[in-house]
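SUBJECT: A protein chain and its fold
Encoding: whole-number codes for local backbone shapes
Chain under study, with its fold:
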Amino acid sequence: MTLKIVIDQGAPDAPYEQLRAQIAGRARSGRLPVGYKLPTVRGLAEELGLATNTVAKAYRALEADGVIETRGRNGTFVAAAGDASARLAATAAATYAREAHRLGLARDAARAVVEDALRATYGK
């Protein structure tokens, strides 16, 4: 999955605002899933031909809005949206997905484990 951000230099909105709006819109619509790791500020700036300060300003605004979260050296990720229980569930799901991937589980096997756990918890 790639961001596919397009910056229109002739648009009335500043490039940082275009970047902020595109990432926020995709995160809120689910096209960028919770836990999606965003490129580094430098990497995205290079890719888009923008100044690093422009991308950093957009990331700061997105973080202030709760759209993304920075996890220190681990990087910047799309944050969970919605109420607290949905946010906690999304965080747990993202953690599980990373761990299943690290363990080498195929998607179908990872899903089967979740389905088994749900059946054990909810019944049927």
User: Anything to note?
Assistant: The radius of gyration is 17 Å.
